Amino acid sequence: MTTRKLPAPDLARMQRRLAALSAPEVGGTANGGVDRPALSDADKAARDLLRALMEELGLAIRVDDLGSMYGRREGLDSGAAPVLVGSHLDTVSPGGRFDGILGVVAALEVVSLLEEAGVRTRRPVDVVNWTAEEGARFAPAMLASGAVAGVHNTELVYSRRDAAGLTFGAELERIGYRGGPEHRPQQIHASLEVHIEQGTVLEDSGDAVGIVEGIAPVRWHQVTVRGRGEHAGGPGLRHRRDAAVAAARMILEARDLALAADDFKTTVGIITAQPGSTNVVPHTVRFSLDVRAATDERLDEAVRLVTAGFAGIAAEEGVEVVVEETWRLPPTEFDPGLRDLIQATAARLGHRSRRLLGGIGHDSMYLARVTRAAMIFTPTVGGLSHCEQEDSPWEDITKAVQVLAHVTAEITQT
Predict the structure, then answer these.
(1) Where do runs of H (alpha helix) occur along 153-234?
(2) Is the pLDDT of residue 2 over 60?
(3) Under 8 Å between Cβ of 187 and 79
(4) Which DSSP string do the residues of 319-372 spell out, in sequence order?
(5) Taking the mean position of all CA atoms in its chain, how far away is CA 15?
(6) What is the pLDDT of residues 253-309, one digit of tens each?
(7) pLDDT at 361
């Protein structure tokens, strides 16, 4: 049977599965989002539900030593390297109901369509749920896929701590999802992931299917501003060396420089002040700084521009500033052959598509280091993600999943 005989995706079935994986019992919020940090009780409940959905499809389930789940639809050649299809179930707090979750639902739908059509692939298909993609509870992001790709060792992953001091390893054990290292994929023929765009390129262009050329680089920094602490009722403002005021100016400077250049992005998500008292001028302020651009070269320039701006403010405010890089992701290019196949498949199926660059990290970034990898984006309403308002048009989702199913069926026959 050829891939051309695959049925169209079942919209109602996909909606049911996504609703189940974003229900209150698995972390769904009253405002329509999902609050499901990695390895939380809600994550365990979602994993248990995914296991049940995999079992309904007759998939052979395994869990590796980092908690990533794989549901295998066996191929005619059981020894052939599998095609991995999926994403992640963990979210930020609170997050949306599509980021990551849609990719898992899309993978389940691919298997359902293959079953309905009676397509026997030569290679196995593994539906995958990667552990701790978001990095919201255990940093850095994409811990499990990074370990599979050889970026992180197991000890580092297990030692990651959340804000309460709980470790990844202890929480993985607590929820009962610590499997064995032998269940990690030993060989991977290809990796495919459907994800919402988390931007407005597709929405603005009216295209349903985004073919992701690659992922732009990311740099994380910790900025430490040291001034002089004193009583709020002490000498006048002109004599202060106020770390909080200096930090506030720096945060605005980073934003204003990015706005003026319009080709890089800056974000500050964490701010702490010491000593943290209402009537004391802070002597030290620390804040995070996320900088993103299309290329490493432009990112280098952007960081230099921002840090120079910080130095100027520090001199004016009489404080010291130190900018330390804490994490980086290099640029990632996805497999050219898979990109071309996705584009050709979309055209054959009559779906409008366009190529675009992703600006946010995904598990596929690390998979691209060890196998052929590709991503398909669906439009995001208003570009909103990592929030309860996150949404994507189901008509476009159906088209993207149809492309995913046909591409999966084709590459699993090779």
Answers:
(1) 154-159, 168-174, 201-205
(2) no
(3) no
(4) -EEEEEEEEEE--EE--HHHHHHHHHHHHHTT--EEEEEE-S--HHHHHTTTSE
(5) 21
(6) 999 999 999 999 999 999 999 999 999 999 999 999 999 999 999 999 999 999 999
(7) 87
DSSP string over 70-119: EEEE--SSTTSPPEEEEEE----TTB-SSTTHHHHHHHHHHHHHHHHHT-
Q: What is the pLDDT of residues 57-99, one digit of tens each?
A: 999 999 999 999 999 999 999 899 999 999 999 999 999 999 9
* The pLDDT of residue 3 is above 60: no
| Secondary structure of residue 138 in the 3-state scheme | coil
* Distance from C-alpha of 14 to C-alpha of 394, rounded to nearest angstrom: 9
Nearest Cα to 18, choosing from 87, 104, 86, 92? Answer: 104
Under a CB-based contact definition with an 8 Å cutoff, are residues 94 and 385 in contact?
no
Model pLDDT for residues 143-181, shown as the tens digit of each residue: 999 999 999 999 999 999 999 999 999 999 999 999 999
Cβ(258)–Cβ(302) below 8 Å: yes
Q: What is the pLDDT of residues 250-268, one digit of tens each?
A: 999 999 999 999 999 999 9
- Considering only CA atoms, which of 42, 375, 57, 341 is closest in space to residue 195? 375
Distance of CA 360 to the CA centre of its chain: 7
C-alpha closest to that of 264 among 226, 309, 224: 309
For the whole model, what pTM was predicted?
Answer: 0.90
**339: closest CA among 407, 243, 250?**
407
DSSP 8-class letter at 6: P
Q: Using an 8 Å Cβ cutoff, are 323 and 253 in contact?
A: no
List the structure tokens of 366. 């690390």
Q: Which residues, in sequence order, are CB contacts of 161 under 8 Å at separation 6+?
A: 138, 167, 168
Q: Give the C-alpha separation, 168 to 172, whole Å.
A: 6
334 with 366: CB under 8 angstroms?
Answer: no
CA 106-181-131 angle, to 5 degrees, is 40
Taking CA atoms, 349 is separated from 3, 7, 195, 402, 407, in Å, by 11, 12, 19, 8, 11
